């Protein structure tokens, strides 16, 4: 038994010896295969690593706060006994102030700085990306211009070839022209410049060099290019005239849906029972109350008036003090009246008047009361000139704000009744700043070569705009400005002193009788300028779509249409029946 145990111990010790010495033998065998160069490189590498470690250990640490370990957290028994404390530890819950985890409070400023740095880096990357895109786009535009120039030169050389010529150079130029035109179309569509397009440019250049040797007459080339330039400029002028004509035609044309709406409302109007005498008496009291805010709109456009009234009432702080006087012609009176009967304006009062009711107009002003030397209905519409008879139309009122039908009200306008008029009749926004799109000069619409005009007015006087005007009717009556209006109206019908409709007549009628109001009250240009600053539009109390691009027309600027259409309910059954959409 003892012998057996002895042999077991010997076997175990032998195995241990083998496990220890076998790796040494194997490694020594591998070391023998290393060359002297390899041994030297191995030893040098070891020494270099040792020197790096020593250098790092010898460096002085930078001053600053040492790294801090995490703060130990000790929870109280109350934290686990309270249901609120337990919920504050649950995933997705919002801890209360009492159980707020403060483990990371010390690093709050650092985390904030890291966040700001990340935002700064992202902004820098975005700006760098945008600059690269702009640079790439400029390179592409330059190459497209170069390709276009090559096409022009190739077509000139082709024009020098005899009619019916089928020479090798002619065929080559025609082929290059087709290829390059196709390449230009691809670049325009994809906004990218392919390798094939660059190759086609090189091929065209080589063909043009050949053509230059074949047709060395530079004078003929310059003459042909000059003729082509003149022809292109003439085409551009014709296109501009056509665009202007079509835009003006669209601006003068009433959309088909608007005609449909007027007809439907008119047919429904005559089926309505007349209002009671009590309603008429109650409304009459409000219509003549000088303590209320009276607005006047002269228009034959039902939806445009609806937007003006809706936007004004919805922006008002005291809508019950608002009284609207809508003046239209006899043809649109039923439709206008029916619309506001079906769509009452809450606590505000709306009166619809027909100019046919103003019998005094034709009786007292039998010499004519509007300009007759224009064909554009925007200038010849009788409603445009009724604003010069405000004291006659509203004899019991002292002050009135006149709004054009192409405006949208965005702020409360009650402050206009407290504007210091400085003894003037008209309060308006000026348009005499040259750096603005609304800039106008007196001599643009008034003929100062006429001695009568030159003696009476200063061509450098500041101009102003219609669209939102405050009129002091008492001062108007005292100055008798309607008679002054008729004087210049008669002169303009006899001699060419004015152009452009009612605006220049307003300038001469209210000359030295206009005070400037702050620009925030009235912003112009949404009907002819698509580059207005959005911040200025948002801050304006009244935005004005003056120009041909009205918001209810298909040609209107899309970026401004939403400001107008949000004040109209296009789910109205009448609008849907007439296919009128926002």
Automatic annotation (TrEMBL):
Membrane topology: Single-pass type II membrane protein
Biased composition (Basic and acidic residues): 96-131
Enzyme class, spelled out: transferase
Pfam families according to UniProt: GAUT_1, Glyco_transf_8
Region (Disordered), start-end ranges: 86-132
MF annotations from Gene Ontology: polygalacturonate 4-alpha-galacturonosyltransferase activity
Pathway the protein contributes to: Glycan metabolism; pectin biosynthesis
Gene Ontology biological process terms in this record: cell wall organization; pectin biosynthetic process
InterPro entries: GAUT (IPR029993), Glyco_trans_8 (IPR002495), Nucleotide-diphossugar_trans (IPR029044)
Keywords noted in UniProt: Cell wall biogenesis/degradation, Glycosyltransferase, Golgi apparatus, Transferase
Protein name (record): Hexosyltransferase
Organism: Cucurbita maxima (Pumpkin)
Gene from which the chain derives: LOC111488508
